[in-house]
Specification:
- The chain has 429 residues and is mainly beta.
- Helices cover 5% and strands 57% of the residues.
- The protein is built from 3 helices and 23 strands.
- The strands form 2 sheets. It has a 14-stranded antiparallel barrel with strand order 1-4-5-7-8-9-10-13-14-17-18-19-20-23. It has a 4-stranded antiparallel β-sheet with strand order 3-2-22-21, with no helix packed on it.
- The radius of gyration is 23 Å and the shape is elongated.
- The relative contact order is 0.21.
């Protein structure tokens, strides 16, 4: 039961939101309205301040000082489950998670010098937000009832441009701070021993668990952008893993007809802790202009989810009986993104994109707090700009492939879809 408590906590940083996350695992790739309109294929173009999130080397080619403020409004995935669970036994049930609205703001600022080919940038965004709520009476309540993860990432970056090569490189730091809240019903598998009488070998409700935890982790990011021809550009970006040591408080309130007979306290408080490593990510990208008004880009991103091999939960003495190690055994995966932009007029662009994200979670460890699956992302966008400002709008539909699993937690099919709306305004000084 405690494993779920920090499974949410772990997810905080990785996120690796699903639920609210739209890259592989629990990562939100939608960090810019312009990029989202092109299916997040943007690491080779990287031509506005949101380059800090996709390929920081791009800020070396931006002129003057630019500030971008944006927000992605996410309709949290409508997840449905049809099948059996540990609580329903052989009875087939149908469950739906609550659909909520989640807002992920972004702020990017860049500044370059006229006398030297050097640029600085600061990005503030959220790569791993998460939100999921199942009803209190859900047959999945022993895994999760609600989880909310609110991470914020600060990214100071410096970039240098080699004008004679049309090449730029960048390096920066990532500082991620995360807050997590979670609640679930606590159940306990009773040993099949005579001492437990009629409860022996059963699965009993014993209470409600709630937890709040925080963590700060540090990493780095690197970028390279090369423009060998006016119509061709390449991008390479790398974001390191971030190690989080999550610490917080756990609360337990006893419930269930047989909880007292098991010797559990009416209520208890404890510390809670776990260690999580957020995965690294490598992006390779190419952008090409076959004609003057049309830009095409293809990105491939590898995420090192194999770092998420288990989730260990550690509690203080009062709840030490709930210490647990939950295997995850995720694998490294690739995502592929294709985007296009067409300049309808000198001041207006239309965009479209598609992305395919492979999920990293094996059937054996899939659970309802993050019922991930392979996904298809379809997007549309537009941009309006002049010499001093720009406004970008985008919409994305995320469709998860139906995921049928059979493991110790549940046996059935998860179905999910989500809608994202994004807007960003950029000011140039």
């Amino acid at each position: 039961m405690r494993k779920r408590l920090l499974c949410g906590i772990a997810t905080v940083s990785m996120l690796g939101t699903a639920t609210v996350s739209f890259g592989a695992g629990f990562k939100v790739s939608e960090q810019s309205a312009k990029a989202m309109g092109m299916g997040n294929a943007f690491a080779a173009q990287a031509d506005d301040p949101s380059a800090l999130a996709y390929n920081p080397a791009g800020i070396a080619f931006l002129k003057g000082t630019q500030i971008q403020v944006g927000s992605a409004t996410i309709l949290v995935p409508q997840t449905e489950f049809d099948g059996t669970t540990r609580l329903s036994g052989s009875t087939v049930v149908s469950e739906k998670a609550n659909r909520d609205i989640f807002i992920a703001p972004t702020v990017y600022a860049t500044s370059s010098f006229e006398s030297i080919p050097l640029a600085f940038g600061l990005g503030i965004n959220s790569f791993h937000p998460l939100a999921k709520r199942w009803d209190a009476s859900s047959e999945l309540r022993d895994s999760i009832q609600s989880i909310s993860i609110k991470p914020i990432n600060f990214q100071p970056t410096v970039a240098y441009r080699f004008d004679n090569l049309n090449l730029a490189v960048a390096a920066g730091f990532d500082v991620t701070y995360a807050q997590v809240s979670m609640q679930k019903m606590a159940y306990k598998a009773i040993p099949n021993l005579p001492a437990y009488g009629p409860l022996a070998g059963t699965y009993q409700e014993v209470g409600t668990i709630g937890a709040d935890a925080t963590a700060t982790g540090y990493g780095y990011n690197l970028g390279l952008q090369w423009k060998p021809l006016p119509v061709l550009s390449f991008g390479v970006a790398y974001r390191s893993e971030i190690k989080l040591k999550l610490e917080g408080d756990a609360n337990y309130l006893r419930s269930g007809a047989n909880a007292a007979a098991l010797g559990l306290p009416a209520k208890a408080r404890s510390t809670a802790a776990t260690d999580i490593t957020l995965p690294d990510a490598l992006t390779l990208a190419v952008a090409w202009k076959p004609i003057e008004k049309l830009t095409l880009e293809f990105d491939a991103e590898r995420t090192g989810w194999s770092s998420y091999d288990k989730l260990e939960m550690r509690f203080g003495p009062t709840l030490a009986a709930f210490n647990n190690s939950d295997p995850k055994n995720w694998k490294d995966v690739w995502a592929y993104r294709l985007g296009t932009q067409y300049a309808v007029t000198p001041k207006m662009d239309l965009r479209a994109g598609y992305a395919y994200d492979k999920n990293p979670a094996p059937d054996s460890t899939l659970s309802p707090e993050l019922p991930d699956a392979d996904r298809h992302n379809f997007s549309l966008g537009s941009g309006f700009h002049n010499e001093f400002a720009s406004l970008d709008l985008a919409y994305m539909w995320v469709h998860w492939v139906d995921r049928t699993v059979s493991n110790v937690k549940e046996s059935g099919t998860f179905k999910s879809d989500a809608h994202i709306f994004s807007i960003a305004a950029t000011y140039k000084f």
